[in-house]
Design goal:
Blueprint (H helix, E strand, L loop, with lengths): L1 E2 L12 E6 L5 H16 L3 E6 L17 E2 L4 H10 L2 E5 L11 H6 L3 E6 L11 E4 L6 H11 L8 H15 L9 H12 L4 H9 L4 H13 L1 E4 L4 E6 L1 H6 L22 E7 L4 E7 L5 H9 L2 E2 L3 E6 L3 H14 L6
Parallel strand pairs: 1-7, 2-3, 2-5, 3-4, 5-6, 6-7, 9-10
Antiparallel strand pairs: 8-9, 10-11, 11-13, 12-13
Helix pairs in contact: 1-4, 1-5, 4-5, 5-7
Bound molecules: guanosine-5'-monophosphate and manganese (II) ion.
Amino acid sequence: MRSIEDIFPLLAQPRTIVITTHQKPDADAMGSSLAMRHFLVQLGHSVTVISPTNWASWVNWMPGCKEVIDFELYKEKANTALDKAEWLLCLDFNAFDRVKNMQDKLRSLQCTKILIDHHHQPDEASFDYGISDVSKSSTCEMIYDFIIKSGHNDKINEEIGECIYAGVIGDTGSFRFSSTHAGVHKLVADLKSRGLDHEQVHHELFDNFLENRLRFIGHVLLHRMEVFYEYNTVLIAIPKSDLLKFGIKTGDTEGLINYPQTIQGIKLVAIVIDRDEERKWSFRSKGNFDCNSFARKYFNGGGHFNASGGHSNDSLDVTVKKFMQAIKENEEILQ
Ligand code: 5GP
Ligand code: MN
């Protein structure tokens, strides 16, 4: 994989570009994709954003979101765009197994593939150009760097600012995670000086749920949360019947994992959700527990040191049993 800077001189010539990101895109994934699109369009490129799956309704407000193609819903249209692409930009993921049903298609493409991402262990062999930097707070921060470093400071407009800010907020937990280095605050100061309405972005992201989601959280915290003080671990296992009962949609479970982290002394929080096709795991840790390695070792996943995810084809009961065995094996580090 060649350095991302080698792509900068090539930006001058208009091209047909597809931007894609990981399945079930969150604020950073969608924000970085749309910010990049708004930037490249200003340079005269023809740009399509494709999401491997559907996404949470709380990113619909992002400028340009209405034109994003859901690969699962509009496969033909997405494949046509992919076949025409001269460049494929892969943002906020670093291996093709993160794009679900789109992975075979992406692997088969002969176009130039470019990676911009901040997760551990990138599959560098799959990309022609790229940057992978785990010290970055978010992929949105990396898009901001990309625009500035390629010499296009003047192109950061209101739309780009909103998208970037949303991703930074999402991935830093509103500036609380250790990934929030000084440069993140400088970036936000810069966006503010360009007119960013940060309050509106917070409102769109956090104050736009329906009542059912709050009732669901109450139910889950009361009935599905187990605290294992001997391992300083909290587990929440959510059966499909809960999702159906409360009418839970993509994105409604975002943020749920933060509540158990507020319990004194807890080092690891794990949530598993019984989705139709798989059991989806999320992990969050405090301190020296490495969620990325844990997710990779036991649950086909990965991510960051203190935040990761994974998945399993086992039933909910079986995957929960495996989790209990896994935390037993990690008992020492959880003390
Ligand atoms: P979340 O729990 O919010 O879904 O994900 C936490 C972090 O782990 C995110 O950075 C996400 O990209 C990553 N992640 C979630 N699920 C998976 C997975 O199945 N595989 C990998 N490699 N990373 C994941
Ligand atoms: Mn991210």
